[in-house]
């Protein structure tokens, strides 16, 4: 093969390489941008923080706290038409019992009080994802904190669950 | 003479080769730019961003959000209407006549959202959290 012929063969290979690179870039870009932004984890985190801020006012229990505490109303949370997409659960434990269980590395059980709102069915998604995170189910955020209730001291555990699959997962 | 002709042929081949490569790369870059900065994607991005900002905000707060790329995109499409609105518990971002993206808020607050017209060109939106809804 003369030099001119060799150049033409090389040019064909060169364009073949470019086509492979272009194909890969296009595939990667399309694959990345066809999925919506998944903000559920951040949203669940914000919700937990908001509830924690509402229950504990500078470390002291909210003055409106009673046995019929309505989280949504007191904490200014409006789930409205999207009620099925959220679940909020707040468990109050006796601080001394919690401390003992924590030191003995036992799981938390028997809360003194539990308040919840939203769709309780999506809570199971949190259990499924304890070992491994999956794409489709709801996103959960669980946080605990100490709060001084005057005569009693509590350990409060807040669980927020956000489903919103259609807006965050394709 | 013969030698001159051959040199010219090589030069033309190389120029054509370089031009084709440049065209190819330009198309690739244009594709990436159009995919990453399209109106639908920006609508979704800002609707979710603003919804999360409002969800984490408290009454009395005023937040300024830079939306330069959204303003540029809306201008390039020829859309001059209101870009961000809060209707009840939904944030809607609209950068096209036919389009828009809504995202639900859970924070029960009264919000005002308006463009910051103090700057020229306008590139920011102001989110003002007034009070909790009764």
List the helices and strands and how they pair.
The complex is a heterodimer of chains A (170) and B (134).
Chain A: H1 3-33, H2 40-55, E1 56-57, E2 60-61, H3 71-74, E3 86-94, H4 95-103, E4 113-118, H5 124-128, E5 139-149, E6 152-162, H6 165-168
Chain B: H1 2-36, H2 39-56, E1 62-66, H3 68-77, E2 84-87, E3 90-93, E4 101-104, E5 109-115, E6 124-132
Antiparallel strand pairs in B: 1-6, 2-3, 3-4, 5-6
Number of domains of chain A: 2
Strand proportion of chain B? 15-25%
SSE run of chain A = HHEEHEHEHEEH
- Identify the biggest protein-protein contact and residues per side: A-B, 30 and 28 residues
Mean pLDDT of chain B: 89
Which strand order does the major sheet of chain B show?
1-6-5
Fraction of helical residues of chain A: 40-55%
Q: What would you say this structure looks like, in words?
A:
- The complex is a heterodimer of chains A (170) and B (134).
- Chain A is of the alpha+beta class and 170 residues long.
- Helices cover 41% and strands 24% of the residues of chain A.
- Chain A has six helices and six strands.
- In chain A, the strands form two sheets. A four-stranded antiparallel β-sheet of chain A has the order 4-3-6-5.
- In chain A, β5 and β6 form a beta hairpin.
- In chain B, β3 and β4 form a beta hairpin.
- The N and C termini of chain B lie far apart (93 Å).
- The relative contact order of chain B is 0.16.
- The interface between A and B is medium-sized, with 30 and 28 residues.
Key phrases:
heterodimer; A: 170 residues; alpha+beta; four-stranded antiparallel sheet; two-stranded antiparallel sheet; 6 helices; elongated; B: 134 residues; three-stranded antiparallel sheet; 3 helices; 47% helix
Task: Tell me briefly what this model is.
The complex is a heterodimer of chains A (170) and B (134). Chain A is of the alpha+beta class and 170 residues long.
